[in-house]
Structures are given as structure tokens and as C-alpha cells.
Amino acid sequence: MAVQGAVRTVELKHKFRLRLDNFTRASWSKMGELKKSVAVVETWEGGSNTPIKTPGRTTVEPVEVTRIAGMDEELYNLFKLTSNVANNGGEVADEFKVNGTLEQLGLNDSVVKKWELRGVWTSDFSTGEWDNEADEGRAQVATLQMDDWDLVFGG
Fold it and tell me: Which of 30, 33, 47, 146 is nearest to 94 (CA)?
């Protein structure tokens, strides 16, 4: 007996592409979730047993990315820009921020969803560890902060 209804699509975790401005080689192997949260503002009026709840400020959570270390230093250079801004202090231009896109790929590698990432910069950078007994690549890990992100198409 045939099943009626819409076909269920599954988004595979391993099928994604993260592109950042000015990065010629990215090859990200892992990326944390995009997450935003809205604060809840509660106000109480005299005699009320329940609060009036309204949305407050939006917080964009940081994202951790991982890639196998290669010969290029683009990820470290982005962190270095951020570090230089923090060390110099004072009035800061947004030159240490880049924009980018995150694409969810389908089974045939076509883009099924696309997010726009704005104001991306690194707050943490790890070179990864060295081990003479390991049969694997050294992983670089960075924490990306961002001003905002939006779903451009899909869903």
C-alpha cells in the first residue's frame, strides 16, 4: 500500500560547505551549530500573579570550527587581526571581521539551504597537538564569533 503525504527529506551532517571571505582554502571538517537566543523580559504589574513577557535582546552564540592543518595560515591570520585590534585598543574599525556563507548540501552536492554569516571573527585559535605516534592529521580549532546570521534560502 502506497504511503500518501510529502516526501521526508533528511539533511546530512557531513554535507556542508563553509566559505569565508578572503579564504582560498578552507576544508572544514567540523562545525558547531548556528544558534541565536532572545532574552525574555518579564514585567510585573501590581497585584498580578503572572508576569508580562516580552522579547529582549538577541544573542548570537559562538561557533567552533575544526579543520586539518595545512600549509596556509589564513585561519591564524584572521585570529592575528583580532588579537592586534584587542592589543591596540581605542576606536576600532571592523577590518578584522569577514563575512561568509554556510551551505547545506544535498545528496548530489547541490545547495539545499544557505545561511549568510555577517561580522565573523575569531576569539580562540588552537594549532592542534603534535604526536609522533598518531596516524592522523593535526586539527586546527577556532571559535568564531559573529554579529548575526540569516537563512538566505531553503527550508
Answer: 146
**Overall average pLDDT of the 11-21 stretch:** 79
Count Cα atoms within 13 angstroms, Cβ side, for 131. 9
Q: What is the mean pLDDT of the chain?
A: 84
First-last CA distance in the chain: 29
Place of cell 570550527: 65
CATH class of domain segment(s) 16-42+50-153: mainly beta
Alpha helices (H) in the chain, listed in sequence order:
74-88
Neighbour count for residue 86 (Cβ, 10 Å): 11
Q: What percent of the chain has pLDDT over 90?
A: 34
